[in-house]
Specification:
Two copies of one chain form a homodimer. By secondary structure, the first copy, chain A, is α/β, with parallel strands linked by helices. Chain A folds into two domains: 110 residues, Nucleotidyltransferase, domain 5; 163 residues, 2-Layer Sandwich (Nucleotidyltransferase, domain 5). Helices cover 37% and strands 22% of the residues of chain A. In chain A, a hairpin with a 3-residue loop joins strand 1 and strand 2. Chains A and B meet through helix 6 of A and helix 6 of B.
Chain lengths: 307, 307
C-alpha cells in the first residue's frame, strides 16, 4: 500500500485554533478545532495540538507527516515567531515554529494568517491561474497577502502586506494600531458597523451580520453603509493595483458573504478609480474555498508550495 | 589585450535622449545625448542612436557590445514597447526593443525610466545593500520602481510601480492621466509649483527651482509649500511601506536637490505615519548616483543585472 504524505495546517486565531491534515491535492483528510483561550501558556497549546495531530496521523492508514504550516496574526515567516500580536493572549515574541518543530519533529513554518490565505488560494483556490495577485481578507479587520511573480511577498522583515493599515483618511477613525484613518477602520466587519452607527445615530451594539440583514430588507441606511464601504474599498483596491499590477484581486472573509451588497459598489468604484493603464485588465474575484477549510489549507500551503 | 564587454544604456525622455556605453563595473566609458523632438519617426531615432553607438564602440580599443538597455516613459518590459506614453511624440505602441535589437544586433530590453533607475541604484548606487526597496523619482512627475526579494516588480502586464498615480485626495487636482488627486499632482516639481501658487495666489508661470530659491531666502509661503509637499510625500511613503515592507526608500530626481527643505518634512511625516511594526526599520535615503549618469546606468543595468 502506498504511503500518504500529509502536512499539518494550523490556524491560530484569537478565539479558536483550527487544525487539519492536508494531502498534496489539497484534500483535508482530518480536521479539528479547540478554544485558544484555555491556554495561558503557549507551550501547553503546542503540546495539546501536537498530541491530537500525532494521534490523527496514527489513525490514518499509511499516513506520515512531512511538515507543519502555521498561520497566525503577526506571524513572521523569517523569525518563525508571532510578534506582539494585539489580539492574542501571549505577549511579546512567541517562537511558534521552533516549538512545533520540537513537538512534531518536522519542518515547521509560520506566517501571518492573510499570507497563508493567499498561498491557499494560489495552490487550491481562485488564484490558481495567477502569478500576480492580491488576497484581501475582510473579517474583524482587513488583512492582505501579495503575490508577485508567483512568490508571496514577505518584505525585508517578514511584515509585508499590511494593506489594512494604509491610512486613507487624515485624522480619521481611531485604529487598534494606535494611528488614525487606517483602511481597516472603514472596510471590515467592524468598519461597516461603525459606518452604519454613524449614519443612523444608533449607539447600541450591533454586528455586521445585522447590518447585512437590514440591508437585505431594504433598510436605506444599511444599504448606504454598504455603498460607502464599497466606495472606500474600491478606491483602495484601485490604488493597490498601481503598486504591483496584479492580474486579480481576491476577496475573502465574513464580510464577503454579503455578496452583491458589498461587491457591486466595490466593483463600481474600483473600475471608476483605476488608472487607464490597468482598466479592464484586473479581475475582482471572491474566494472559491470553503471558509472553514481555507485557514487550514492556507497554513498547509506553506509547506506544500515547496514540495 | 583583454576584450571589454560593454552595454549600451539609452534613456529616452520627452526632451532628450541620453545614451552611453557602460562596463560591468558601472563605469560610463562613453556618453552622448541628442534632442528627442527632431525625430517624428521613431525608426529614424533608432538609426541615429545605433549609428553613434556603433561608431563609439569601434573607437574604444578591444570593446564589443553585448546588449542594449532602454529606459522610457511607459516602457514595458514584457512587450518591449513604449505604450501610449502621453509625453512622447510617438503615439500608440512603439516596438522599441525589437527596433534596437535589429539595428544593433544585440539583446535589447526596455522598461520604464523609474524601473531602470531602481535597477541602476541596486547595481551601482545607494540600493546596493538592499534586496527590498522602493525608488521614487521626483521630477516633472513622480515615478517609482519596486524591488522585492532582489527582483524588480513588473506586475502581470509590465506596468507595476505607478505610485505617482495612487489617488491621495478625493476630487483633488486634475492629473495628466485623466483622473483627480493623484500623488504626482502634489509631490513633483509641477506639484510644488501648484502648491506655491495656491498659497500665494500668484498665477504667473513659475518653476520648482524658483520656489526653492524663494524658500532658501526664507520666503514663508515657499517654505510652507515644501512643508506641505513633504507632508503628503511622508504619508504616501509610510503607506507604501505597508505594501512591500522595504528596508529603504530612495529618493531621486530634480526636486531632491532641494535637500533638507524637502527631506526634513518628508522624514518627519514619514516617521509620524509609519505603523509601529515598521518604525525605526526603514531608511529614507537619497540617490548616490550622479544625476546625469543615473539614467544611462539604470538602462544599462537591465542587461548587466543578468550577466
Amino acid at each position: 500500500m502506498q504511503q500518504q504524505a500529509l502536512v499539518a495546517g494550523i490556524d491560530i486565531g484569537g478565539t479558536n485554533v483550527a487544525l487539519g491534515l492536508v494531502n498534496k491535492q489539497g484534500e483535508i483528510i482530518w480536521k479539528d478545532s479547540f478554544s485558544t483561550k484555555q491556554f495561558d501558556d503557549f507551550t501547553l497549546l503546542v503540546s495539546h495540538a501536537a498530541k491530537v495531530i500525532k494521534t490523527a496521523v496514527q489513525q490514518i492508514s499509511s499516513a506520515y507527516l512531512i511538515g507543519c504550516g502555521i498561520g497566525a496574526p503577526n506571524g513572521n515567516y523569517y523569525s518563525g515567531s508571532i510578534e506582539y500580536a494585539p489580539n492574542l493572549v501571549w505577549k511579546g515574541i512567541v517562537p511558534v515554529a521552533a516549538l512545533f518543530k520540537q513537538a512534531l519533529q518536522v519542518n515547521s513554518i509560520v506566517t501571518n494568517d492573510a499570507n497563508a490565505a493567499a498561498l491557499g488560494e494560489k495552490l487550491y483556490g481562485a488564484a490558481k491561474p495567477f502569478n500576480d495577485f492580491i488576497l484581501i481578507t475582510l473579517g474583524t479587520g482587513l488583512g492582505s497577502g501579495l503575490v508577485v511573480h508567483g512568490q508571496l511577498v514577505y518584505g525585508h522583515d517578514g511584515f509585508a502586506g499590511e494593506l489594512g493599515h494604509v491610512i486613507v483618511e487624515n485624522e480619521g477613525r481611531a485604529c487598534g494600531c494606535g494611528r488614525k484613518g487606517c483602511l481597516e477602520t472603514y472596510c471590515s466587519a467592524t468598519g461597516i458597523v461603525k459606518t452604519y452607527q454613524e449614519l443612523s445615530g444608533e449607539e447600541s451594539s450591533l454586528t455586521a451580520r445585522k447590518v447585512y440583514q437590514l440591508a437585505s430588507l431594504g433598510n436605506e441606511l444599511a444599504l448606504q453603509a454598504f455603498e460607502l464601504t464599497g466606495k472606500r474599498l474600491g478606491l483602495a483596491l484601485a490604488n493597490a493595483v498601481a503598486y504591483t499590477s496584479p492580474e486579480a484581486i481576491i476577496l475573502f472573509g465574513g464580510l464577503v458573504r454579503a455578496g452583491d451588497l458589498l461587491m457591486k459598489p466595490t466593483e463600481k468604484y474600483f473600475e471608476a478609480n483605476l488608472h487607464n493603464l490597468y482598466r479592464g485588465k484586473v479581475k475582482l474575484l471572491t474566494s472559491t474555498l470553503n471558509e472553514s477549510d481555507a485557514a487550514i489549507l492556507g497554513a498547509a500551503s506553506l509547506v506544500w508550495q515547496n514540495e
